[in-house]
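Project outcomes to date are best conveyed with an example. Our students and postdoctoral researchers have been running inverse folding experiments weekly, and each run begins with a structure described purely in tokens. The record below, which covers 255 residues, was selected by the lab manager from last quarter's runs and is presented without edits.
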């Protein structure tokens, strides 16, 4: 079911968005050569406890997950492109790290993701991150009252195609509100003028993710982490936004 939220409810979502943004800012500062993924997860768990918030991930067990996720953060490194399950891995120089975080604050959920290079960056990795961020910006810019959901997907897909990247449609954005994943599904490609009409009060997560040389993925033996089929690296960018008469409101905007 697609929910529309009133102005008061959208305002109540702001603290969740700010907290998610604060966590990702802290993670970008913490991620460095020699840091263990489990340290990053522990940092976020501590921040959640201090805020009195609730993790959206620990007990999360959708049909595509082998078991409840069990951690508070997704950490995807190099060819791990989505849903990376934190494990005993020490970040090395040149690693491409994507972190995805969703949390509930005062009954409202926000969801966001970002990608960074640890230590010495490869030009192609920086380019990939830039493309995902530009695609996110394009998708957000298209998320205006009266446009269609296909306009959002098309805007994202155009950026990927211009960069020569493939687009995987198995996973994409989604509705957000009282729960982390709701309707509608927000694909990273689409046909302009098609699909759901965007109305004030719709809150969605837009999340482009691309890989260097493929659009195919497989599930790691851990039952959660999704990896590129050819070993190429991936990057992921995401924001939670509200559709308003004044344009898209980015609830998870980082300073």
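After processing, the design step wrote out the following sequence:
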């Amino acid at each position: 079911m697609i929910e529309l939220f009133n102005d008061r409810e959208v305002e109540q979502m702001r603290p969740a968005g700010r907290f998610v943004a604060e966590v990702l800012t802290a993670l970008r500062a913490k991620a460095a050569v020699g840091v263990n993924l489990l340290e990053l997860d522990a940092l976020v768990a501590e921040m959640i406890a201090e805020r009195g918030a609730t993790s959206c991930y620990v007990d999360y067990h959708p049909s595509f997950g082998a078991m409840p996720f069990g951690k508070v953060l997704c950490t995807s490194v190099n060819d791990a492109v989505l849903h990376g399950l934190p494990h005993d891995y020490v970040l090395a120089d040149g690693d491409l790290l994507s972190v995805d975080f969703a949390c509930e604050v005062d009954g409202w959920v926000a969801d966001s993701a970002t990608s960074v290079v640890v230590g010495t960056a490869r030009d192609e990795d920086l380019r990939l991150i830039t493309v995902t961020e530009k695609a996110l910006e394009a998708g957000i810019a298209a998320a205006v009252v009266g446009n269609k959901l296909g306009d959002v997907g098309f805007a994202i897909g155009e950026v990927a195609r211009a960069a020569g990247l493939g687009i995987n449609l198995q996973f994409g954005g989604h509705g957000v509100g009282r729960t982390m994943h709701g309707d509608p599904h927000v694909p990273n490609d689409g046909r302009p003028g098609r699909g759901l009409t965007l109305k004030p009060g719709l809150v969605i997560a837009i999340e482009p993710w691309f890989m260097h040389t493929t659009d195919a993925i497989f599930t790691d033996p851990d039952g959660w982490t999704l990896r590129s089929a050819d070993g190429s690296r991936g990057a992921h960018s995401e924001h939670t936004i509200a559709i308003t008469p004044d344009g898209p409101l980015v609830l998870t905007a980082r300073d």
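The chain has a mean pLDDT of 97. The domain at 7-250 is CATH 3.90.230.10 (Creatine Amidinohydrolase). The training component of this project remains on track.
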